[in-house]
Amino acid sequence: MTGATGFIGGRVARALVADGHQVIAIARDPSRARDLRALGVQVRPGDVTIAESVWGPMMGVDGVFHVAGWYKIGSGDRAEAEKINVEGTRNVLTAMKELRIRKGVYTSTLAVFSDTHGQLVDETVRPDGKGPWLTEYDQTKWAAHYEVAEPMIREGLPLVIVEPGVTYGPGDTSEIRPLLLRYLRRRLRALPKETAYCWAHVDDTASGHLLAMEKGVPGETYILAGPAHSLIEAFQIAERITGIRAPRLHVSPRFMRMMARLTRSERLRVGAGVTYLGSNAKARRVLGYEPRPLEAGLRETLAYEMRLLGMVPPKNG
């Protein structure tokens, strides 16, 4: 595994151990992986950006999960994004090919489609890569998917690609957690109109990865998205769960786009009425993927965050 010290990767590693598998994880900083070691995961030093460092840990394994990726909305660090998301993927998949590993799962993202403009896309849609791109993350993950992974699949690499949407839950490291914390502290003053995502609890995303390894057809892609909800709907659900008032001020996409142009802010740009929406019908049909409703996942997540903040969670949280 790569990315086992991350949010999604950590849950995938734990799910594999729980399923009885022996897991070998590479990490740039193995000291961050004490929890994984406690579970029996073998943690070895390695860096996806250094090709030779991934070979040793991958020798003799039955399967590879390449989950590692660069995700820093607002940093604008194109070089680092390219190095990890594109070249790192090339290094891992090349090692997998040369070592003749029988199957792999690569974690792409629904963001390769960029703004879906309110449409629920599926795996038959092929973005042309011309943009305009909202973030460096979107662009470099598109390149890794369509310029690295897919050409290697056509050359015979036994790889399954999965595309998660927004993934949330206890331990979240994405842009969603700061919004939830501001909301719980009653500091979230406004929400953008029309902005919408497909929301999957992290345990469901991890389960989808295991299903992709077990049941996924090499050469195929599966969208591991959860149910679609706007940001406004998500916080209305949060209000029902916690009783904490959701923001009533809803900002127009036009105003946010104007502010994004003035400030050159990626964060404002991705919030300006943008949608990242994808259909999980294929994953449900082929893999048996069953993401939980947003209300069930948010109930657990909000209760977790409220405890960390010293707040009393709802009785059914």
Q: Proportion of β residues?
A: 5-15%
- The CATH architecture name reads 3-Layer(aba) Sandwich
Question: Spatial order of the strands in the main sheet?
Answer: 3-4-5-9
What would the average pLDDT be, to the nearest integer?
93
Instruction: List the quaternary state of the chains.
Output: single chain
For the largest beta-sheet, the strand count, sense and barrel status come to: 4 strands, parallel
Order of helices and strands: HEHEHEHEHEEHEEHEEHEHHEHH
Q: Name the CATH class.
A: Alpha Beta
User: By CATH's scheme, which homologous superfamily applies?
Assistant: NAD(P)-binding Rossmann-like Domain
The CATH topology label is Rossmann fold
Shape: globular
Number of helices: 12
Distance between the termini: 33 Å
